[in-house]
Sequence to fold (623 residues):
Amino acid sequence: MIDLLQAELKRTWIQFIRYPTEVISGIVIIMAVFYGLFASAQYMAGPGFAFGDRLDAVVLGYAMWTLIISVNNDIAINLQIEAETGTLEQVFLSPYGAPRVFLARAFASLALRLVILMVVLLLLMGISGSRLAFPPMLLLPLVSLLLAGYGLAFLMGAVALVFKRVQQILGIFQFLLLFLLAAPLEEATGLMQYLRFLIPMLPSTGLLRDLMARGLGLDWFTYGLALLNGMVYFALGLLVFRWAEATAKQRGSLSGY
Amino acid sequence: MALGSTHQHPATPLPLLPSVAKNFKISKHPTYRWELNPFVQLAHRPTDDWTEHSSPGSIVLDTRDLSKVYGRGKQRFEAVKQVSLTLRQGEVLAFLGPNGAGKTTTIKMIAGLVRPTQGQVTVAGEDPHRQPRALRHIGAVLEGNRNLYWRLTPEENLEYFGVLRQVPRKVAHRRGLELLARFGLEEKRSTPVQKLSRGMQQKVAIAIALIHNPKLLLLDEPTLGLDVEAGEMVKALVRQIAQEGRAILLTTHQLDVAEELSDRVAIIRRGQIIAEQSTEALLKEFSSSTYHLEVEGELSPQQIHTVTQLGATVQGAQITYAGTPENLYGLLGALSPVPLVAVQRDRADLTQVFLKLVKDHPDANS
Fold:
């Protein structure tokens, strides 16, 4: 499995850097958006969600928004691209099984995005003289958030495997994501304060807001529930993906697009 | 293009010591030739011992009553009906059929990419639909697919797909370089695949299908869209690969390619196998017993009379004879002492056989 992860990291990296003009233009766009944020132009972040008015919180909010969107779309879009280019069936010939391969791919692509994001942020801190500070405790709800995010990514991948054309659904899904990331249901009263733990990612984003915007510490019981939420959605995503793989094989439509 | 009459199944026991025999293979066409196969040697190094090896001539692929039904009710369509195939180590089976006959569906059921409605697939004793491990025995180049990452170089593609097939990364890298050297692609190892010619891309795709040392190679239209030179190159590679002892299932619309490469032929029509036997036997069955003889100079009136009496027709120096093989010698005696230029038996080619079988089959017009 380590070999597979390394191979996916290498493949993702090579495909990214093979054509330098693409890399440079991509980085310039990201830098422009983040420079806008550094220059207090919050509208640059579009419909993103923020964890407060401080620069750290605005930058983190936007970074999280782009990261989650890319994580969610990653598997579905890759499946569609590979079906179109004709490599998908070779991937399904792997004895590792498709879920493991796509999981390794998702991690590789996340690692690449994190590296780009960090390089851009470091460059901008150097240019603008601003400093960003994040409490290391943030990593914990980030992990549970990403777990649930990957669960949803596998669900979208399953949709792509069975229904093929997914651009429209992915577009609509972004609005749902906005709700999942931005709705402050941790402040809700009544039944919703309990039901929110059943909705994907919501408990984790609530904790991130606690840490960044409200200056609260990490509530370990809530974190336990957030982690459980992440694990359940991750497992559900994998299960549905397996079902979708079996359905596509049953229909003989694996390579169709 | 017909196979020579000396054609023999490559799995025939060889008169060699076992330790020597496994590093030597017989070349099938046009005559037998002993040769040291460096690839086989490398595959037997202890460091490469990450796949098991079958005993010579053992069954690699076994499908039993494979069927595939798509849709329900009025939309119900039976794409493949009870296809049973067996393929042994070192054997090349040409799987032929018109468009939409069920070839690709069958190949994909064998590769575990399409689930059969009924029936069973076993590759080296394992079922690819139940045991993902079985996929370690299968290499495939699928038609209509690129099979490669175009932004990656051949070297990078080989290493990546090797790991994807559970070959340790370092072994995959080393084997990738060996395959590139063997396929004459060393110079192109660092060129992105999209900049290679179609023929080179196909060679890389075949190399990738071999990176994990599979026992079964599935080749769906491997020469499609290639120019003559590239097509010849791919044919030569297929021969070499079969000589290593791998079983090859090949589909193609180029029947001369199938005739040249295959030990056996299976013809599928509307999802059903309508013929399956050795290529040589099939060609023999469909060849007529008509002989064409050519002599140097003119026959005497007496000779023409005798020859005609034996059932032959004479047109100048050309004689056509459709009698029994025994009487042929009487005919030859009657021609003496006129020098013979040629004696040739009418021989069907696979194209004729294929067309006849596909058109004449009982349900051809149904």
